[in-house]
Amino acid sequence: MAAPAYAQSASTDSNQDQIVVTASRSGDGVKVSQLGASVTILDAQALETRQTRVVSDILRDVPGVAVSRTGAIGGLTQLRLRGSEGNQVLVLIDGIEAADPYYGEYDFGTLIADPEARIEVLRGQQSSLYGSDAIGGVIHYMTLSGAEAPGFTARLEGGSFNTYTGSARAAGVSGDLDYAVSSSYYHTGGTPTARNGSRDVGSDSLGLSAKLIWTPRDNLKITGVGRYSYTDADTNDSESNSASSLFGYTVDSPGVHYRNKAFYGLVSVEHTALDGRWTNILSGQIADTTRDGYTAAGFDYGDKGQRYKGSFTSSLRFGTDTVVHRVTAAVDVEREQFQNTTPSPFVFEGKRHTDNVGLVGQYELLVNNALSLGGSIRRDENNRFDDVTTWRVQGSYAFAAGTRVRGAFGTGVKNPGYYELYGYSDGKYIGNPNLKPEKSEGWEAGIEQTIGGNSTIGVTYFDSRLKDEIYTTYPAPAYIATPGNRATESKQHGIEAFVSARPIPQLRLDAAYTYLKARENGIVEVRRPKHIASFNATVFSKDERFSGTLTLRYNGRQSDVAYTDPSYIPVRVSLREYVLMNVNVEYKLTSRIAVFGRVENLLNENYEEVFSFATPGRAAYGGVRVHF
Length: 628
Known about the structure:
By secondary structure, the protein is mainly beta. The protein contains 4 helices and 38 strands. The protein is globular and about 75 Å long. The protein starts with 18 loop residues before the first strand and ends with a strand.
């Protein structure tokens, strides 16, 4: 807490020594070992050794995370944290709120990995810091600065399913300017996503990112971030002919695809005073998204959304060498606007917007680098929904023997999205403008043990309850689907366990396990496996020229819904468990040139993450990377 800290790759540090920037609104970094909250950091080395190309894949290794992708790469990809819905997880990219303003949710199918990036996953209710969406937690994807990862890197890769990818990055520090510019591209010819289908469902994804940090004086920093994302992905529809035996099943749909374009921007000015103890940050950000869907006949549906947000944060640190206080106040002013562009007489194509002002207060205490306590409160004043107050308290204590105990209690809120409020599909779906926000409260308690300074094992119990849950109902007499608020509570509780170890420099081990019981009205919630586990082992040669990684990911049996009844009332189905095995290797020919290869789904597992959407089989890839 003594001074501001940037995120670091920390490839050889214990997870407990790494710095988290998402857990505080102050702008300062906090050590994992000083947080009462559950947090997982996927550093740049983890992304590199696991040869991550699609960000959602490595998030499967995080406790509490369940991933559902509709078939092929580029398909709609949802992440659920601790049994929450996908739209109840706040996603930040370099500090920018990234959720599609129209859907109120971020599609991870549009995010391919950048060179030199890291991810922070903060679990539990965080609305007291960030407002709506942060019921399950916060996922923060960050590209590293020029000081953190300088130099020029480029990568070329090819492999199965007519797949080829590439990336390039240039970064460094020149005088008082820190710069990092990167680009990534992913193309795949794809595989069939319909059971017994023959149409290959492929995709093209492009990501461009730039981050500039100008420090004209020691106490003044100006940061600019820009990001462009483009995805053009084939998709398959469900059979809509009620007379067909395949009604409701995914079928080959030639010509059907979607395009997603998004621009994200942020500018912030940070000024420090009182020898770095008082920090003031003024920032503005924008998210502009467009999603269009097509059939063989042409344009079929579309939507647009924009989010404009301005924030001011003031944080003061004071105290002694052994007792440090930090008090933070923040104001967030935000407007989200939406428009449905679907060419249909049944669609409302006018614009709507929602304005929100959030007032945040946060207090953090650190005593003898062992005891940390914190609390935060937020008041959101909204022009469309009732004003709401959320809060959170948390604490952590580290014993000299390496044992740490921690706990937290907090509340969260999620506002309805545009489609839930105003969406319309003739004879199938009608929006509900009278929806209320969803509200959540939950607690967690955990214990961790550090062994030898570079290994940590931990376990956490969590319990959450969701009120006013938005769900789909079928009221008489028309029985047309429409959203409503539940009168009963949705409950989630479970256990998260992890091991993070670097017992010797030549070996890195990471393992995670989640047990989840998520129910609504006594019924198991869909796409939330009861058991999820992962294991990663990376071996390095003594000269670090060679590395090899074994990855195992287990996804337990889970429920889903199928619309195989012509009434469009969903039918419950069960998706079987599966294990995915990946093997990666890399060898450095010189200090600047490396060759690599990997095999994904080595066991050629046949599985589904979403009902009737087939997934790729065994695949092999290889390429070369240069670094200067």
